[in-house]
Write a structure and sequence with these properties.
The chain is α+β, with helices and mostly antiparallel strands and 344 residues long. The chain is built from ten helices and 17 strands. It has helices spanning 15-28, 108-116, 125-132, 134-143, 161-167, 190-201, 246-251, 265-281, 316-322, 328-340, and strands spanning 2-9, 34-41, 47-49, 68-74, 79-83, 88-90, 94-98, 151-154, 171-175, 185-187, 207-211, 215-225, 228-231, 235-239, 255-258, 287-295, 300-306. The strands form three sheets. Strands 6-5-4-3-2-1-7 form a seven-stranded mixed sheet, sandwiched between helices. The structure holds adenosine-5'-diphosphate and magnesium ion.
Length: 344
């Protein structure tokens, strides 16, 4: 029986989102066929092996109390995961990291997994790190002929005077590296800009300020099956007000996801082509969701590339493939089979 470790949680602002994504991933796996190790990295950064299924129970997390301490071991004699409470050594056949945000989606965890020499699902160190950095993403995309809205990065010592004089308001202010819209605000005035910068600096020492795009958001997922790319159905986020912030992403009160997007086939083809081009030029692997803006004049701008997009059954990425007939269970199995082969 193949042993698969699903690693989730993580020391990032998206800990709770990861619990939800991982719950869905674990539930979709064939428990008869695979031995599944559920590893939660706590908000303090401790690695825990769960003895039973966890439930999403808000802050209490009683299930963590019965967990054991597990740690990556990279020694001359052995590489793997050591459960120091049970004194048991695990060498999974595959690791599926289901962590969004810092230390999970930015190449850091991937680096640990590379050193463990255990195969893992998803983008590698470099592509994860680049995609997690909003400015680097835009710069590298430009070299592939894909445009993004003008942006400037700043540290605490700098002020965006020149940028604002040139592009005006409104602008989006973001931590350079983040997710789930945490720390992001839209600013229409100098006063709002000051507050937005202060907020973004709470999450990163570098922030990025972008000219707001007046239009709609559209996205396209890319999935790899044995090295062949499958292009997901393009979706659209319809916003009634504001922007796609943390609350809206998980409650969808003012926002609605349209699958498929209500745009022309020509736009869908163009978005799919750009998404695939970026996936390839960034060296992405297995999966990524590429998000764009379509402005009122029909111009398409890259927003960002998510190497571990939301992964619940209702999330955008799985829905892009469900639309093509690859349901959630099939999607997970396909990702596992990229590494495990189909002999068992
Ligand atoms: N330049 C922009 N123009 C218009 N809306 C934007 C812009 N940047 C971000 N947004 C809005 O903010 C949301 C979150 O920004 P994004 O860069 O995707 O951050 P995250 O990585 O947290 O998802 C987007 O989904 C969109 O609604
Ligand atoms: Mg986003």
């Amino acid at each position: 029986m193949k042993k698969i470790a699903v690693i989730f949680g993580g020391k990032s602002t998206e800990y709770e989102v990861s619990l939800k994504s991982a719950r869905a991933v674990i539930d979709a796996m064939d428990h008869e066929k695979y031995q599944i190790l559920q590893i939660c990295i706590t908000q303090k950064g401790e690695w825990r092996l769960l003895s039973g299924d966890y439930v999403i129970d808000g802050k209490s997390e009683r299930w963590l109390q019965t967990s054991t301490h597990i740690q990556p071991v990279i020694s001359e004699a052995s590489k793997g995961l050591y459960d120091r409470d049970q004194m048991e050594f695990h060498v999974p056949d595959l690791i599926f990291p289901v962590i969004h945000g810092q230390q999970g989606e930015d190449g850091i965890l991937q680096g640990v997994l590379e050193m463990l020499e255990i195969p893992y699902v998803g983008c590698d160190v470099t592509s994860s790190a680049i995609c997690f950095n909003k400015k680097l993403t835009h710069q590298l995309a430009a070299t592939s002929g894909v445009q993004a809205t003008p942006a400037v990065t700043l540290t605490k010592q700098e002020i965006p005077e020149v940028f604002i004089a040139r592009y005006g308001y409104p602008v989006f202010v973001k931590p350079l590296r983040g997710g789930s819209s945490i720390g992001i605000s839209k600013a229409h005035t100098e006063e709002e800009l000051r507050e937005a910068m202060e907020e973004a600096f709470r999450y990163d020492r570098i922030i990025t300020i972008e000219k707001a795009v007046d239009g709609i958001e559209i996205g396209c997922g890319i999935l790899e099956q044995q090295g062949e790319r499958i292009i997901g159905s393009v979706d659209e986020i319809e916003l009634q007000a504001g922007f796609f912030d943390y609350h809206e992403k998980y409650h969808l009160e003012q926002a609605e996801i349209h699958q498929p997007a209500r745009v022309s086939d020509a736009v869908k083809r163009q978005v799919a082509e750009l998404a695939e081009r970026l996936f390839v030029s960034f060296g992405c692997r297995d999966l990524a969701r590429v998000d764009f803006f379509l402005d009122k004049t029909g111009e398409i701008y890259l927003n960002e590339i998510n190497t571990m997009p939301g992964f619940t059954g209702q999330s955008r990425f799985p829905r892009m493939f469900a639309e093509l007939g690859i349901d959630y269970t099939a999607l997970i199995e396909l990702l596992l089979q990229n590494y495990l082969g189909s002999e068992d």
